[in-house]
Amino acid sequence: MSKLTLSKALNEGLRRALEADPKVMIMGEDVGKLGGVFRVTDGLQKDFGEHRVVDTPLAESGIIGTAIGLALRGYRPVCEIQFDGFVFPATDQIISQLAKMRYRSRGKISLPVVIRIPCGGGIGAVEHHSESPEAYFTHAAGLRVVACADAADAYSMIQLAIASDDPVIFFEPKRRYWDKGEVDTTAPLDSAQPLDRARVVLAGTDVTLLSYGPLVRTCVEAAMAVARERSVEVIDLRSLSPLDMATIGESVRRTGRCVVAHEAPVYSGLGAEIAARVTEACFYHLEAPVLRVGGFATPYPPSRLEEHYLPDLDRILDGVDRAFSY
Amino acid sequence: MSKLTLSKALNEGLRRALEADPKVMIMGEDVGKLGGVFRVTDGLQKDFGEHRVVDTPLAESGIIGTAIGLALRGYRPVCEIQFDGFVFPATDQIISQLAKMRYRSRGKISLPVVIRIPCGGGIGAVEHHSESPEAYFTHAAGLRVVACADAADAYSMIQLAIASDDPVIFFEPKRRYWDKGEVDTTAPLDSAQPLDRARVVLAGTDVTLLSYGPLVRTCVEAAMAVARERSVEVIDLRSLSPLDMATIGESVRRTGRCVVAHEAPVYSGLGAEIAARVTEACFYHLEAPVLRVGGFATPYPPSRLEEHYLPDLDRILDGVDRAFSY
Amino acid sequence: MTETGLIQLLTPEGERVDNPAYPLDEAADIKGMYRDMVLVRRIDTEAIALQRHGELGLWASLLGQEAAQIGSGRALTPKDMAFPSYREHGVAWCRGLDPLRLLELFRGVSNGSWDPEEHKFHLYTIVIGDQTLHATGYAMGIQRDAAEDEAVIVYFGDGATSQGDVSEAFAWASVFNAPVVFFCQNNQWAISAPQDRQSRVPLYQRASGFGFPGVRVDGNDVLACHAVTRRALQAAREGQGPTLIEAYTYRMGAHTTTDDPTRYRLASDVEVWRLRDPIERVRSYLARSGQADSTFFAAIDAEANELGERIREGCRTLPDPAPLELFDHVYAGGSAILDDERERYAAYLESFEQTDTALEEAGL
Amino acid sequence: MTETGLIQLLTPEGERVDNPAYPLDEAADIKGMYRDMVLVRRIDTEAIALQRHGELGLWASLLGQEAAQIGSGRALTPKDMAFPSYREHGVAWCRGLDPLRLLELFRGVSNGSWDPEEHKFHLYTIVIGDQTLHATGYAMGIQRDAAEDEAVIVYFGDGATSQGDVSEAFAWASVFNAPVVFFCQNNQWAISAPQDRQSRVPLYQRASGFGFPGVRVDGNDVLACHAVTRRALQAAREGQGPTLIEAYTYRMGAHTTTDDPTRYRLASDVEVWRLRDPIERVRSYLARSGQADSTFFAAIDAEANELGERIREGCRTLPDPAPLELFDHVYAGGSAILDDERERYAAYLESFEQTDTALEEAGL
Ligand SMILES: Cc1ncc(C[n+]2csc(CCOP(=O)(O)OP(=O)(O)O)c2C)c(N)n1
Ligand SMILES: Cc1ncc(C[n+]2csc(CCOP(=O)(O)OP(=O)(O)O)c2C)c(N)n1
Ligand SMILES: [Mg+2]
Ligand SMILES: [Mg+2]
User: Fold this and answer.
1) End-to-end CA distance of chain B, in Å?
2) Inter-chain contact A61–C164, Cβ cutoff 8 Å?
């Protein structure tokens, strides 16, 4: 066990993957010599060489498009998109090519490409550096979309993502990069929780609070803050597509109330899918509608307004309270 | 009144808009000399010239990016994306630029750009020619997303979209292009139903059936098929973002049951937003969860399977039946 | 746009001309190329007819582009990898793909059911330009494998050159010196857009701005296409990086079977190009130079007839996929969400069967 | 990458050299350019300091690029339109923009609150390359307006040249012969990526492949940048279409205030470029040629001090937007969905105020 930041845990996970399989590669803007703007790939080029850790030209479609070609050749590229807001030039390669290739080829082609995306706000950044674009990808069948929330999970999730034969969009909560946690780097990977399973972070009985990525910690803090009045079960979804409905449904059927929190705009966000699905699966158990706490139907605001835009402990608790007002 | 196909109604609407405002332009691949692969822009270049109806290079990002520039210069470009599956190269320009410019500039910039997208399946086409990408755009604040369903509405909606100072993603149901309907081309535009309002197509009392685009007709047919047993209210949403919750909520509160049908995959699709929002707004009125009928969580299949993929009359009625099983 | 600088080894009249930079490969099997061209043209003719008869949803004709495709396709070694667009039926032929695999796609039975690695021929790519990056990435893989006897070729059209992805592929291939040949069939049309809507200078020049060589070849001259491609592939294998080949040709048919080219181009323009037919010139050359006689030509025509019949028959009997195949091959690792959808849909389908059986049993 | 072919009118030592193709504009206000450069460098210095003190979230320094920006910015007429990237503080200055408008952006108070048409200076664009298409479209608008005395200039970096959108802009501008000047500041770095990660040949050559002229200018020579830009703009206005200008310069500072360039480049490399400082050479030239004396220089330094103070003061007092401004300017036509969110959030905020008031009233 060692105490690592989330960033370092990812770094260690990537290192493990590079060591374990010579076909694993890392590619992206500034991932090599600089080690990435968040240092997630720090030192990897030095140790594994320029052929395996590739500083690419500045072109996101190029990164994903060539990664697809490398995967066709048997490689397992792990691509970094420098910030959430810069994934969009790669949308076509991701949605029309990466997601569909297995289906198109009737299973003859696997594209084990991982796309790492630092995501979310709360760091006082300029435009396009604080977005939460997960819902754009959860709608695309063929992609796995996952989000890590803490160091220990990040360490194993990144390795599981790389080991997966499916393309994986891997969201990293950038404002949690420097949060520390105990990471067992000696545990075998197959003891880790599978990539497509949600995780009950805090058991509870009165209401189910669902989240992922940066807000998991906020949700736990919120739950603790009201622990004396209410027993809040906090679930870290981990897998955003496909959703682990078994875990979610079991919880909501028990608690009868459900709140989903994410940073992305509520409108047409992932919370919508969760709410719709949970309602269908747990209709007779629900005491209140599934409520959503999230970003507003506006573009991400200038950073001096982000504290208002982002769900914080109070807004999450407000959502929980509303769930009890029915 | 004249009987026009939906394609011709759009053509007439575009012609009106070109006549009414010299700043209106049409641009896209093959929209000029050829008149578009669906002939929606037929004859317009001949009548309005190459400066106003522009055959562009083959580059979707280029189409939207230059349309933004033209709009900054005071023009009102109406862009055609040839098929639904080819909008993705333009995602970055649409989501990071077009949608946000008004917000970024604190209202100083308007970008009255319309993006016409023939959408949906059912025509036996090859890959990428049958998709329903609306949910990728409804999540982006700043965009209006609308879909027309019949000739009369298409005629006025396209003009309203062009007159709007907001950017509009305008979906056209390609398999309905040759459906005919009565169109009153003499009616003044301001008598038309506003762009952001839903429309009750068929009044009913037992269940609310929501849809848009190509499935509106299927829904009406479904409702009529069971008219003797059930009174189904069919609503054409028209505006997918923002949703007209006033009209929808009023109906669902009356009927107590709601089914949403669209061609796009159910998972993370627009139906999710509708279900989540309707459930919150009408919780105490709902006898059953809002049910969704739509495409599966797979890529669009080869055309010989599309009859299974696309919701048809039977699958929609199956959804309606399920709503009564609660 | 001028046609100067066009590399040619065989004139439209079928006369051999020499080009010191591109000596004819002694081993080049000209008769074999002739045969290939005749056969793929037959595939094309049959497919168009099948589409007319409702057996295919669509067909993209290669008419007029046989030399570009067979010349370049024949220049590939079995180890080289090819990335097609959607019109490369001739290249598919050279890679040993059964034409029925292509018909499946245009019939809507599959989206490409061949094994790309087995044939060293990737799936057709319909989104314009996307495959150029895949090819470049694949070539970067070859570099990492230090596989010095392999190269990649990627096919795309004149229209595709405007797509950002194609330029990105040029930039990457150049920066990484990747062993990839960019083979642009400039058939002068992107549906209704003439070539000057994509560039105001000849397309092969695009490469120089990215720092690698571009060459323009007579795309209706199978020998020239073969020689130029062979050389570019060899350069790639030898570590000299990418080349852009612009095969200057003409789309003799409609863009696809749903297109009506009379709306945007003159029949007389097409006529000019009919005189440059890629098959005719080889035929004259072979006949005039005494390398082939009427027996040879007759044998090939007979072979084409047989092939045509096989295709007609084969196409009509291509089985439709079973409904539940809809749900296969989305995820390697499976998805509970999708399993649920499959199960529900299976039950739904079964409910009809049950109704049907019940009705039947009731004698209705 | 060589530096041959670089257009220069002033050597690093401050000596005037002649270039027959680019005669010095007699009216060129060299002293004014010197002043501009000194002042924008001061803006830059202050902004970096403000960021260090937590007053700005970030700053992208233009250090070393003053000549490229002032030279080109001064070549614009009031009617020309400029599309910046995110580092064009010098161009902003030339367009009469108050530097505080830029600080607002980096402070997180706005995403750009100036009126682009008023200043003929578009908002900063952070997504690399996107603005090149906007500029091209704008130029197409100028063509439609038949506004013969207007042209467009668009700024981007060496890194941006790899983005598909930039190539698409090149293709469109060329095909439509649009009056747009592509001004690439090759500062040799895209964060940590050196220029050879984007191209293996000089970037100005990119243009020729798209069919329009490209020129490389000494980006640290304000006179050359001015002359070359002026000529390109003039050509654009006269209907000669686009030009690509590569201003060869060097990013003297970090990429932004969060970057640590010591991780990827040598201090000694930076030193080489310090000797080519764009301001120093004009100062020597002005001094040596007797056009300016120490009074002049002192006056400008004093002006810079004043400007610095104004910026420090102004920045600290930039007001934060009110919380509910969050919901403004999303739609011109309004949105009931958003109105609902605004209302709910306003009520939510109010509930805190009520609690606060209640607590206060209770004397707590
Ligand atoms: C990204 C994208 N946009 C539009 C289309 C529609 N489309 C199909 S083929 C074609 C023209 C392609 O022209 P070219 O690249 O010259 O190839 P050719 O068809 O002539 O072989 C277009 C616009 C597409 N398939 N993909
Ligand atoms: C599409 C996109 N990808 C990545 C980034 C992150 N990023 C910001 S600046 C930069 C480097 C830009 O280099 P260059 O174009 O040379 O401009 P410079 O910063 O040197 O002025 C990168 C990668 C971005 N802003 N946009
Ligand atoms: Mg073509
Ligand atoms: Mg740079």
Assistant:
1) 45
2) yes
